[in-house]
Amino acid sequence: MTTMPLVALHEAAEAVTAAEFARCMAAFAPFEPAPQLAVAVSGGSDSMALTVLAQEWASARGGCVFALTVDHGLRAESTAEAQHVAAFCSALGIPHATLRWSGPAPKSGIQAAARQARYRLLEAWCAAHAVLHLLLAHQREDQAETLLMRLRRGSGPDGLAAMPALAERRDVRVLRPLLGIPRRRLRATLAAAGQGWIDDPSNLNPAFMRVRLRAEMDTIASRGLDTERLAALAKRFGEARIHAERDTAALLARAATLDPAGFAWLDSALIAAAPHDIAMTAMAALIATISGAEYPPRRERLERLLSCLRQGLASGRSLGGCLIQPRRGRTLICREPAAIAPPVALAPGARVAWDGRFTIDVPETLPPGLFLGGLGVPAALDGAARRALAAIPAPVRPGLAALRCGDAIAAVPALRYVAEPWRKCALPEAIFRPTRPLMGAGFTIV
Which of 197, 226, 279, 430: disulfide with 45, CB 3.0–4.6 Å? Predict the structure, then answer.
């Protein structure tokens, strides 16, 4: 672990003022009367500066900050670094928690796996502690590097918008208030506060693309593409993305109808008549929402599906864990039975997610032995439930959320059905709450 001293900061760098940071945070308003913020703190200069600024901002509004450090356990120094961050936070009176990544490390794609684990742990902590805002310390150089990385990977216009200032996740808003601020000013902020920071040696490892890009930045800047211009370019792509998202939302509002049982009806003619990129984005959003997936299908497969819709979908197709079928002048999009996740146990007092689509807040008094899973092909339902089931398209039925006890069906919330042995119990509702909403807050720039 290398702790950087408070010397040799970038020349002429000015500390970020409280008023300046407040203007950055104003882009994410409104907040609750006494805002509670979680800040991801690695110990590096960016996250340490964000912690100092966030604490001052929250305290001025009667709120508080919680500092969260993820210890991936990938380096021998990581535990000591987490302890260093804990001591830094304690000196500032900031509650701190270390979140540890358990399980074997992957043999490849370590950075991607660590990033996914980090978000998962941070969001789970926020959900468990009812904290609505998670602050991340990405700054201007990070934005420029993200743009270059995506250029190298051949990303489209949406990808070249790089990182959004705000992203709505399942249980928390992810805020990046520092995207327009360069690192040298964050280090000057720490110097003004009398705080040092930790340099992560993995930031010097050329095995990682982002590290190699940082080494090339001087050459890139000499050709007229410094970090300020790259970040400005990402912002322009972001502005274009915002306009495209508005058009996509307007198209989906006209063309798609979501059912709380977890499927959608689509007016294919409206999709077919829309501009190509808007139609592609709309279909990607629909399929990701109905499948419960984190990411939409690959572009080339979406292209083929859109071509079929424009020609008139003659038969059913599967894509991204969904079935897409023509039915009486409309298109049905529902979960593909073969892709449905296995049942999950319902632990009293827990919030349980299933299949990336449904969540249940389990009461403490729930009878033991219940699971949440797909309805499948039910053997026995009462008359009212059978009539309700008949009104739901046949391809949808196996993927309906059902509470089960062994092989028996205890309840099917979408049908308002509860089997006799459980009718006196307070069974919870299964809420359609997919991993990706059809349209969230939209891309945000500051």
Answer: 197
